[in-house]
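Q: Could you write out the predicted structure for this multi-component system? I'm mainly interested in how the pieces pack against one another.
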Amino acid sequence: MEYEAVIGLETHVQLNTKSKMWCGCANAYGAAPNTQVCPVCLGLPGVLPVPNEEALRKTILTGYLLNCEIPRFAKFDRKNYFYPDAPKNYQLTQYDKPSTANGFVEFEFQGGLSRVRITRAHLEEDVGKSFHFDRNSGVDFNRAGVPLMEIVSEPDITSADMAYEYLNALKDILLYGGVSDCDMEKGMVRCDVNVSVRPVGSTGLGAKIEIKNMNSFSGVRRALEYEIPRQIEVVKKGGKLIQSTRRWDDTTGITEEMRTKEHAHDYRYFPEPDMMPLAPTEEWLADVRKLVVELPLARKQRFIREYALPAADAETFKNDVALGNYFEPLAKQSANPKALANWVINNLRAKLTETNEREKTEQAELGIEPADLQLTTLADLKFPPAALLELVALVEAKTISSAAAQQVFAEMYATGQAPAAIVQEKGLAQVSDTGAIEKLCDEAIAASPGPVADYRAGKAAALNALKGYVMKLSKGKANPALAGDILERKLKA
Amino acid sequence: MAATDIDVKYVAHLARIGLTPDEEATMSARLAGILGYIEKLKELDVTGVEPTAHAVPMVNVLRPDVVCPSLPHEAALANAPAQANGLFLVPKIVE
């Protein structure tokens, strides 16, 4: 019998607010332990937590970006459990009345479009961070009370690769919406994976096994690549899977059991008595809707459609938003957006990367911390965006050859000088004067008896050697197509 | 099990409260009293009454996203039973 996997993901995302969820402590990564704490986020008695409006706004915005319904009533509940990183002995979360529900994410997968339904995206709080020593653990509560959004998917995912693509699509959407910085290294996105297997064609769900607290998307993929065959193997051998929680060990590449359902938690949820319910008004929601941005997939599709770009170029502009934003206003004015895209991606981006690498090395040598690096961005370029348009037009009009255009670009990148001025100053204008090129062609033929003989013997490729010679004689200025035509005519005569 | 019976041992465990057998009996009776009161409330006809999450008729009490000073580090750790490297020390967490 063939088996298939059924996967649902719970993705936790830290929202990039300035302050924490219920108090004014800073929501910032990297401070000394327990320096961003107060009576509220330490769970001291007698405090009154008050929800951060911006965190709610970002949650609702996420709801809109994930095609969710926005219920007109939501509330916070206490989820009770004891753990040293949870200072109140409960977590504030949204249990049965979340702020968003019933949406979906659409993304490219295996050459088509896949859709994963979103059960809900609700608002809660992060817990402190634990450090483990020989005989104790130590807790830093700086992270306690940081606004955390939990995005729960329906079990619509069927493979490790699909889970990986879903997570990347989700992250792109969150970055586009500006709701989270999604820095994986800083633990801003964490994931719980629910996975079961069932015979292909059946609709029931097998015993759900949860893999907790994954902090990388590739980890999720690897864990599923291990866990799905493991479960299928158990079932095929006539074994029985029981609902349980497993831990992924990234070093050994296996999952291991943490606890079974017998030890499942009883969280005793109840409405948070210290907080008033949420009933967003039409006016407030309308303001949030103004923050809705074009989704990454829609942007990619639009770039393909409007500028006739190949999918790979559109993908580049989807992933590098700044580069796409640089390209788009120019593309609207360009006769050949595809050629423009080539310049932006292959030349401008490459050059900028090269500059940034050099800046990183130089500044590292000066002892500047990675976080304080001053790197050149698209906004700092010496030439105005329109100069690139001008350069592409010069190539299109065959005023300069593409080889000369490379020189012009290097110069305008370095000095900010206008392309036409560079062409003039360096004498790079392409020679399309037939008479002049004829002379060079004669010279080339006289100087290259070998290739001439080869060409006449039927080796068409030998023409390239002669063309190269002409280009060399002209210092790159001859119109190569014209040179080719003239050489061909002369050799065939 | 009647509606007013409650597993006091289990509830005490969930709340990490240690009770002697005598206390268990006392708590059991008290909680039964409370639950009995709830049973009485259930007799009320609430047809057409919207369920509420709060007794106070107020919604959307929010604060602006503004950073305020935190506690001085020493004050934050003042009540820690043990501390090291600025961290609250707790018994080793094993899972």
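A: Regarding packing and overall arrangement: The mean pLDDT of chain A is 93.
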